[in-house]
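Q: Here's a chain of 561 amino acids. Please give me its 3D structure as tokens.
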Amino acid sequence: MVLAPTEKVVLGSIAFALFWVLAVFPAVPFLPIGRTSGSLLGATLMVIFRVTTPDQAYAAIDLSILGLLFGTMVVSIYLEQADMFKYLGVLLSWKSKGAKDLICRICLVSAISSALFTNDTSCVVLTEFVLKIARQNNVPPHPFLLALASSANIGSSATPIGNPQNLVIAIQSSLSFREFLFGLLPAMLVGVLVNALILLCMYWRLLSVKKDEGTALDEVISEEDATSHRFSPAAMSHPTAQNSQELNTMLETMNTWSSPSSNGSTNYAETLRNRISSKQWNFQGNLRGGIESTRNSNASKEGVVAGDDISQPWEEEFRSRRISRSALNDSDEMVNDEGGALPVQPLEEKEEGGLTKPWKRLLWKICVYLVTLGMLIAFLVGLNMSWTALTAALALMVLDFKDSQPCLQKVSYPLLIFFVGMFITVDGFNRTGIPSTLWNITEPHARINHVGGIIVLTLVILVLSNVASNVPTVLLLGGRVAASAAVISQGQEKRAWLILAWVSTIAGNLSLLGSAANLIVCEQARRAQFFGYNLSFWSHLMFGVPSTLIVTAIGLLLIRG
């Protein structure tokens, strides 16, 4: 493809540059609108500048990728509600033999969970467990955090549902889930092993520190710890200032309704649970009906009220009591200053007659796991991945047998919108002819039928993935790399797609900004309530550079067409 007219090239480059800046630096001072808005801005400018037409922009949106991404998000949310990630967290420290053993466990659990539930999801739900493990073993958290983030990226390379760039590759290449899995599984397994060895070599002395007697009292993560923090696997939403004011107003109004007596604490706690929405403090649209509609809201069945999370007016009124989560029996307790505990049964397990039905919860969990397993089997036998994921998501909504709105609100719609804008922006940039011109210069030196070509292609992908992010890199290079390899043979075309998936994913380990999983681990660790830790850019880079280069090189040797 030749270069477009100069005006189109200049305007298209401006639109793509704005998209790139906001995608890589979402809080840039001169335009702090974030990645999602930046993606829509780039897409809109491509149409306004007439780099692409509206019809071409609509055609650039790949609904198959969006459907697969949405379906896997919903499945991950139901898996989180079915305590799948709680069990993974407990598994991390079950019968542990020390810090070195824990490093290996974190690498393995993070890799496997990322391959099945996406790397971002695994990092969101496992970071706090990893911090607790570091505290229990009296060592700095950064080796464990590095193990979590890097292994999540490596593990996610093995399946099309492991990360967003693999979704794009699977759809564009028409590779089946089975071909993708078997093509990259050996590289992934060896990569996780090598990554763990690098961590052990770099931090052997640090991990050899003996635990203090005080820390030896808490050998494993209890189930209470495992369920004391709930995360949305698709998105981490935070209340705005306006929502916080609405919450305070609502709680102050609730304080005037009734005063709990010492004999009626349990009933009062249940009343509070019925009045507070369960949508993870996301009050959009829920307060419009006033306090009366909140009192009657059925969404309260999903809520978990924690005394430490409630505003100051609440604490002043009820500082002699708090509601705590008891993970051992999945019930709540109201605890007074003297230590007395009054159990409050969770509403989701109550029948109309007031009897608890824990077996129903267990049966529902089993159904969730079976549906997920069925989805993975359907992927392996070659069924359409997008519709399989959507079918599994719908089956879980039906089995839940209640309004799915609280679950659907946890879906990361900003990520879906980001993909829509990115499809249009990258398509518009391709129409300027710049990517094709640059690739025509590079292509003769980047053919994968000889070692030198593989090295050049690998370096191009590594650099672009860290400069332009891995998903835009795949969109820009995917078709061109595959077309170049198809000239050699059909087997080499398949190998080219797998190389692109492997290198663009492992490239995320190079620096802290290389992947969203790294940033999630860093942010989750920094904001942890009791044992936060700041994972610095340089500490990550010191490990990321050697790990990325070594793991990438070893994996390339194991990828076959």
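Q: Can you summarize the key feature?
A: The first helix runs from residue 6 to 24.
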